[in-house]
C-alpha cells in the first residue's frame, strides 16, 4: 500500500513538472538567452569573409568569416559547402568576399558568394 502511494506521488510530481515546462519548451523558450525582439530580427544577413582555401573536389570553401549573427556564431575560420560548383571557379585564396550562410541538415552552405566592395 505504501509503495502505491509513493508511485502515485512520484507520477504526480513528474506530471506537474512536465506541465509547467511544456509551454516554455513548445515556444522555444527553454534555454534561450535571447529576448523575443532579438529572435524576430535574427534574419540571415550577408557575412564578410576571406577565402582561405578552395576545395574543388569536395565542393567546399574554407573562409575566415566575421560574426554570423543569425546563427549566434563568433568570427572564426571554417569550411562551408557550396551548392553551385561554378562558385569555386570565380573565387581565389586571399580574396575578400561577402556571402550568405544557411544550415541545411546540419551542413553549413555558403551561398551568393560575391567579391567584397
Number of strands: 5
Fraction of residues in helices? Answer: 25-40%
| Biggest β-sheet strands, sense, barrel | 5 strands, antiparallel
Order of helices and strands: HHEEEHEE
Could you give the distance between the termini? 77 Å
* Form type: elongated
Rg on CA atoms, Å = 23 Å
Our count of helices gives 3
**Helix-strand makeup class:** alpha+beta
| Arithmetic mean of pLDDT | 80
Please list the strands of the largest sheet in the order they lie side by side: 3-2-1-4-5
Please indicate the percent range of residues in DSSP E strands (runs of 2 or more): 25-35%
What are the segments in which pLDDT stays under 50 over at least 5 consecutive residues?
24-41
What does this entry show, briefly?
This protein has helices at 2-26, 36-40, 87-90; strands at 47-55, 60-65, 76-81, 96-104, 107-115. It has 117 residues and is of the alpha+beta class.
Topology:
Layout: H1 2-26, H2 36-40, E1 47-55, E2 60-65, E3 76-81, H3 87-90, E4 96-104, E5 107-115
Antiparallel strand pairs: 1-2, 1-4, 2-3, 4-5
Give your account of this protein's structure:
This protein is α+β, with helices and mostly antiparallel strands. It has three helices and five strands, in the order H-H-E-E-E-H-E-E. A five-stranded antiparallel β-sheet has the order 3-2-1-4-5, with no helix packed on it. A hairpin with a 2-residue loop joins strand 4 and strand 5 (107-115).
Amino acid at each position: 500500500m505504501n509503495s502505491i502511494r509513493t508511485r502515485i506521488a512520484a507520477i504526480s510530481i513528474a506530471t506537474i513538472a512536465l506541465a509547467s515546462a511544456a509551454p516554455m519548451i513548445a515556444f522555444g523558450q527553454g534555454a534561450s538567452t535571447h529576448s523575443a525582439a532579438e529572435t524576430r530580427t535574427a534574419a540571415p544577413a550577408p557575412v564578410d569573409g576571406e577565402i582561405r582555401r578552395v576545395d574543388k573536389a569536395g565542393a567546399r570553401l574554407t573562409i575566415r568569416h566575421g560574426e554570423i549573427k543569425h546563427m549566434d556564431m563568433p568570427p572564426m575560420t571554417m569550411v562551408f559547402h557550396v551548392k553551385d560548383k561554378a562558385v569555386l571557379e570565380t573565387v581565389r585564396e586571399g580574396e575578400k568576399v561577402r556571402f550568405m550562410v544557411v544550415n541545411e541538415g546540419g551542413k553549413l552552405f555558403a551561398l551568393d558568394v560575391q567579391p567584397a566592395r
